[in-house]
Amino acid sequence: MDIEVVTAVIGAEVSGLELTAALDDVTIATLRDALNRHHVLFFRDQRMTPAHQLAFAERFGTVQLPLIDAPAGDVAGVTVLDQVGPKGQGTDRWHADSTFMACPPLGAILHAVQAPRVGGDTCFASMVAAYESLSPALRSFLDELEAVHSTAIVNRLMADLTGIVHREGDDTETVHPVVRVHPESGRKVLFVNGNFTTRIVGLTEGESRVLLDLLFEHVRAPEHQVRFRWEEGSVAFWDNRAVQHSAVPDYDERRVMHRVLIAGDAPVGPR
Questions:
Q1: Catalytic site includes residue 176
Q2: Where exactly are the structural domains of the chain?
Q3: Residue 97 falls in the annotated catalytic set
Q4: What is d(CA 224, CA 185) in angstroms, rounded to the nearest whole number?
Q5: Segment 105-131, tens digit of pLDDT
Q6: What's the CATH fold of domain 2-262?
Q7: 223-245 average pLDDT score
Q8: Candidate list 38, 95, 180, 224, residue with the active-site label
Q9: Average pLDDT over every residue of 36-55
Q10: Catalytic site residue 250?
Q11: Annotated catalytic residue 121
């Protein structure tokens, strides 16, 4: 197995490993360490069935179904994202998955079953780098804050879509720290995103909007990002605790992805 760093702050490509194989504990521990270091891991030429994908995900934690998503496929725990031209549906906005939940997912594993000939890349951004590139004064201020996460924004974006599954409990609001401490690496992570964070607790509406707009724009900085070009058989495994992602909707051919989410824990702030 070879792990090659893609950018200075995020992303590594793993080669020489077949994810359908029975991987030993040392290999899994190496991948977990790489995920903590690089936030998103990329694999090529993986001919995985949904059952293979599920088994691989279960080596890192309990698999969960998202509360708002596309329908599940034939294997429970694997959802199918089958899209053509999905502009404006929410996946093209910078976000972390399901942060409205009390315990948002630890991570996600996405497998490209069918990729368009042109377009359809996914961009990933390190929220560790986003936090660390803020001024010390702003970091200190953010360390003390909490924010409300809810489904309100995504519900509006998906109002006219058919085939979306809304499972019980998807209409709740949850309060999380604006800055969370990563439970494995111990590093501080900026933990607000444009799809689910609606306001900052304790600030006026105007103050909250200005601060969130500043942070949402900040996470878009190119120096925080890596961009992944999908091919059939490509796999991306990202740490949802430390990463935001945005799917580029610049394609008009069918794009079919299988996704598995791994259950996480409740975010804990630095204070």
A1: no
A2: 2-262
A3: yes
A4: 18
A5: 999 999 999 999 999 999 999 999 999
A6: Double-stranded beta-helix (3.60.130)
A7: 98
A8: 95
A9: 96
A10: no
A11: no
| Complete DSSP assignment for the chain | -EEEE-SSSS-EEEES--TTS---HHHHHHHHHHHHHHSEEEE-S----HHHHHHHHHTTS-EE--SEESPB-SSTT-EEEEESS-TTSSTTS-B-TTTTSSS--SEEEEEEEE--SS---EEEEEHHHHHHTS-HHHHHHHTT-EEEE-SHHHHHHTTT-SS-EE-TTTT--EEEESEEE-TTT--EEE---TTTEEEETTS-HHHHHHHHHHHHHHTT-GGGEEEE---TT-EEEEETTTEEEEE-----S-EEEEEEEE---------
Q: What's the mean pLDDT when you consider all of the chain? A: 91
Q: Which two tokens stand for residue 36?
A: 């903590």
Instruction: Quick: pLDDT tens for 127-147.
Output: 999 999 999 999 999 999 999
Residue type for 146, please? E
